[in-house]
Design a protein that fits this description.
mainly alpha
Protein backbone atom coordinates (compact mmCIF):
# COMPACT_ATOMS: atom_id res chain seq x y z
CA UNK A 1 0.00 0.00 0.00
CA UNK A 2 2.77 2.46 0.83
CA UNK A 3 4.47 1.75 -2.50
CA UNK A 4 1.28 2.70 -4.28
CA UNK A 5 1.05 5.90 -2.25
CA UNK A 6 4.71 6.64 -3.03
CA UNK A 7 4.08 6.30 -6.77
CA UNK A 8 0.89 8.38 -6.67
CA UNK A 9 2.68 11.20 -4.84
CA UNK A 10 5.66 10.99 -7.22
CA UNK A 11 3.33 11.20 -10.22
CA UNK A 12 1.54 14.17 -8.67
CA UNK A 13 4.85 15.97 -8.09
CA UNK A 14 6.08 15.35 -11.62
CA UNK A 15 2.81 16.54 -13.13
CA UNK A 16 2.69 19.60 -10.90
CA UNK A 17 6.26 20.57 -11.83
CA UNK A 18 5.30 20.23 -15.49
CA UNK A 19 2.15 22.30 -15.08
CA UNK A 20 4.01 24.96 -13.03
CA UNK A 21 6.69 25.16 -15.74
CA UNK A 22 9.52 24.17 -13.40
CA UNK A 23 10.34 20.91 -15.16
CA UNK A 24 14.16 21.26 -14.84
CA UNK A 25 13.86 21.37 -11.04
CA UNK A 26 11.45 18.43 -11.07
CA UNK A 27 13.87 16.48 -13.26
CA UNK A 28 16.76 17.15 -10.86
CA UNK A 29 14.67 15.97 -7.92
CA UNK A 30 13.88 12.75 -9.82
CA UNK A 31 17.57 12.18 -10.63
CA UNK A 32 18.63 12.71 -7.02
CA UNK A 33 16.07 10.22 -5.81
CA UNK A 34 16.65 7.68 -8.60
CA UNK A 35 20.35 7.33 -7.76
CA UNK A 36 19.45 6.07 -4.31
CA UNK A 37 16.71 3.79 -5.65
CA UNK A 38 19.22 1.81 -7.74
CA UNK A 39 21.18 0.77 -4.66
CA UNK A 40 18.01 0.34 -2.60
CA UNK A 41 16.63 -2.15 -5.11
CA UNK A 42 19.98 -3.93 -5.23
CA UNK A 43 19.99 -4.38 -1.47
CA UNK A 44 16.43 -5.72 -1.52
CA UNK A 45 17.27 -8.24 -4.23
CA UNK A 46 20.43 -9.39 -2.48
CA UNK A 47 18.73 -9.61 0.92
CA UNK A 48 16.10 -11.98 -0.50
CA UNK A 49 18.64 -14.15 -2.31
CA UNK A 50 21.14 -16.75 -1.22
CA UNK A 51 23.73 -13.98 -0.89
CA UNK A 52 21.95 -12.25 1.98
CA UNK A 53 24.78 -12.70 4.50
CA UNK A 54 27.76 -11.89 2.28
CA UNK A 55 30.25 -9.08 2.23
CA UNK A 56 28.93 -8.03 -1.20
CA UNK A 57 25.47 -7.39 0.21
CA UNK A 58 27.00 -5.38 3.05
CA UNK A 59 29.04 -3.36 0.54
CA UNK A 60 25.95 -2.59 -1.55
CA UNK A 61 24.10 -1.60 1.63
CA UNK A 62 26.88 0.78 2.70
CA UNK A 63 26.92 2.23 -0.82
CA UNK A 64 23.17 2.74 -0.59
CA UNK A 65 23.54 4.56 2.74
CA UNK A 66 26.33 6.76 1.37
CA UNK A 67 24.37 7.62 -1.78
CA UNK A 68 21.25 8.34 0.26
CA UNK A 69 23.16 10.67 2.58
CA UNK A 70 24.85 12.43 -0.33
CA UNK A 71 21.77 12.82 -2.52
CA UNK A 72 19.01 13.45 -0.01
CA UNK A 73 20.83 15.10 2.89
CA UNK A 74 23.60 17.06 1.16
CA UNK A 75 22.70 17.76 -2.48
CA UNK A 76 18.90 17.95 -2.34
CA UNK A 77 18.78 20.73 0.30
CA UNK A 78 21.27 22.71 -1.80
CA UNK A 79 18.97 22.32 -4.79
CA UNK A 80 15.91 23.66 -3.01
CA UNK A 81 17.76 26.41 -1.17
Amino acid sequence: METLLHHVVALFLVLSSYISNVMPIGALVMVYHDVCDIFSSGVRVLADSQYSNTMFTFTVYVTFLASWMLCRVVLFPQLIH
